Amino acid sequence: MVLKLLLLISIKHYLKSLGHGQTLGYKDIYLEFLRNQVEQKNPIVLNQVKDVFKFLNWKIVEYSEAFTRADRSILEKREFSRFCELSASSCLYSKALIKRFTTTIWQEKLEVLAKLSATERVPKANCDPIPIRKGTNRDTEVILLSFFYKNNLLNSFLHRYSATKFPEFLCQCREAEQDAFHILTDCPLVNPDLREGLIDRLIVGNQVKEEDDLVHDHLTLLSCSRDNVFVDMITDLIESNVLILRRKIVLKR
Q1: What is the pTM of this model?
Q2: Which end of the chain is more exposed for a tag (fewer CB within 10 A), N or C?
Q3: Which residues contact 129 (CB under 8 A, 6 or more apart)?
Q4: 82-122, pLDDT tens digit by residue?
């Protein structure tokens, strides 16, 4: 039970206990328990406290006035067992601040992964939800989200996954492989005005000058995944039913 509870503790829980915990009757007992877990090198708690230190070291760059000299010493020396001694002001946070921190850390990890995979293109981290239009049904949502990922429900990917199970790789127009980029920018079955609108949003979202500058992959599409106009256009395309697209797949053994 203790292990399950510890797995649910987030950075915000630690910060709340230190920054606002003085109003909680169980604060001292709770913090003493966590301190003992750190001293005993419980890997779950220790890693979570390290995440708290990572957040505070990030925060101190912009909000140095919130940290005392003692706070700075604890953070610089990475004295994890003394995290309970951090001042309440140093541990104050807001939803927006946590979001900025999460986005920054996520972006750093994406850049590391890009270097490891020897690719120059790095997607932009974004913690905002994809702006799916209210009232969109579940099947349409599934197809829409599939468009933004390399592993998706379209013929081209499924054929590469298993040519035996998915022999068809062409689009219904029979002019190219069925992938998201083809459907959104090149398929003759799609309304040409809608195609042009999608291409315009891709040019703006990827900060290029013209269509020929767009790289034909999922990262280009993902760069526009928080553009509500772009997402609405894809939703319109799916709901027009000019193409019969998979809502799900069944992988039989």
Answers
A1: 0.73
A2: C
A3: none
A4: 888 888 888 888 888 988 999 998 898 888 888 887 777 78
